[in-house]
Automatic annotation (TrEMBL):
Enzyme class: oxidoreductase
Domain Pyrroline-5-carboxylate reductase catalytic N-terminal, residue spans: 7-101
InterPro entries referenced in this protein's UniProt entry, alphabetically: 6-PGluconate_DH-like_C_sf (IPR008927), NAD(P)-bd_dom_sf (IPR036291), P5C_Rdtase_cat_N (IPR028939), P5CR_dimer (IPR029036), Pyrroline-COOH_reductase (IPR000304)
Species the sequence originates in: Pontibacter silvestris
GO molecular function: pyrroline-5-carboxylate reductase activity
Main subcellular location: cytoplasm
Pathway this chain belongs to: Amino-acid biosynthesis; L-proline biosynthesis; L-proline from L-glutamate 5-semialdehyde: step 1/1
Taxonomic lineage of the native organism: Bacteria, Pseudomonadati, Bacteroidota, Cytophagia, Cytophagales
Gene (UniProt): proC
Entry protein name: Pyrroline-5-carboxylate reductase
Domain named Pyrroline-5-carboxylate reductase dimerisation: residues: 164-265
Domain of life: Bacteria
Family: Belongs to the pyrroline-5-carboxylate reductase family.
Localization per record: Cytoplasm
Amino acid sequence: MNIHSKRIAVLGGGNMGALLAKGLVASGNYAPEHITVTRRNIRLLDALAKDGFHVTDNNKVAVASSEIIVITVLPQQLNKMLDTIKDDVDPEKHLIVSIVSGVSGHDITSRIGKEVQVVRAMPNTAIAVRESMTCIATGNASKANMELVKQLFDTVGETIEIHEELITSATALCACGIAFFLRSIRAASQGGTEIGFHAAEALHMAAQTAKGAASLLLTQKTHPENEIDKVTSPKGCTIAGLNEMEHFGFSSALIKGIIMSANKAGGLYTEDK
Ligand SMILES: NC(=O)C1=CN([C@@H]2O[C@H](COP(=O)(O)OP(=O)(O)OC[C@H]3O[C@@H](n4cnc5c(N)ncnc54)[C@H](O)[C@@H]3O)[C@@H](O)[C@H]2O)C=CC1
Ligand SMILES: O=C(O)[C@@H]1CCC=N1
């Protein structure tokens, strides 16, 4: 079965829900009229409605008219939302895709009270430019449904399948990771401004340099240190700058931040229950 022919309900049209809906249409593989986006205040979905998406504040209506249910509410909003749709979820018809951090597939089926297939997906905000690193995992979905979900997220970036117990780690590394890399680009641009470039110019230069660094690794499949070795001339300015950063804990700060995010992500649902 081809996922492009299926109707999709995106329950919770906030940042990620709206970005995902728009990204799917931007891929050219989905028509907006096949996607229903919900939000409690639907006036905030006016722009999506103008673009041809169905919008509603009624999750039951969205579920009834779709085969794929993508859950994009916050962990602390999930139970209330699931309680409103559980009577309408049909395990024979529906596949649930949840991007909600810290919530297992089992948490969802328990709350709904039905053994519906659930795939967890962890995309990042780069779905807006179809460059997401999305990890998918499941405890009970069929291979065919995993393939359907992979097809869906492949249209907005790259998708890999991982074990469900690693999805919290993927949240920290890839979903939160976007913010970590953005902050490092901003910091680089601030350094650039201090040494002579206008802020906008420095930001553009830093962002393109970061893109170049990522592209080197993705296209050459080399290790970062191999690429770093090519930049660091003996007694040169690169190694001087790098070592200064390491004296201030650059690598350590990133590692500690990622571990902190993973710990926090793992508890997002239970701490609000
Ligand atoms: N922001 C990100 O980069 C990522 C977020 N996630 C996960 O995605 C989920 C959404 O995150 P964001 O988009 O950042 O949050 P958000 O707060 O922007 O979006 C949640 C939306 O759900 C709506 N909502 C809440 N209850 C509802 C209900 N009963 N019916 C319909 N709509 C309802 C809210 O009004 C809001 O617009 C979270 O669970 C988060 O852990 C996952 C990967 C990346
Ligand atoms: O900050 C958060 O909790 C969400 C989950 C991953 C990215 N944003």
